[in-house]
Amino acid sequence: MSRFRSVVAGVGSYLPKNVLTNAALSKMVDTSDEWIRQRTGIHQRHIAAEGENTSDLGTIAAQRALQAAGMEAGEMDMLVVATATPDLTFPATATIIQKNIGMVRGFAFDVNAVCSGFLFALATADSFIARGQAKNALVIGAETFSRILDWEDRSTCVLFGDGAGAIVLSGEPGAPGMGERGVVHSYLRSDGRFTELLYVDGGPSSTKTVGHLRMSGNQVFRHAITNISSSIAKVLDDTGLTISDVDWFVPHQANQRILEGVSRRLGIPEERVITTVSQHGNTSAGSIPLALDAGVQDGRVKEGDLVLMEALGGGFTWGAALVRM
Ligand code: ACO
Question: From the CA of 324, how far away is ligand 1's center (Å)?
Answer without folding.
Answer: 35
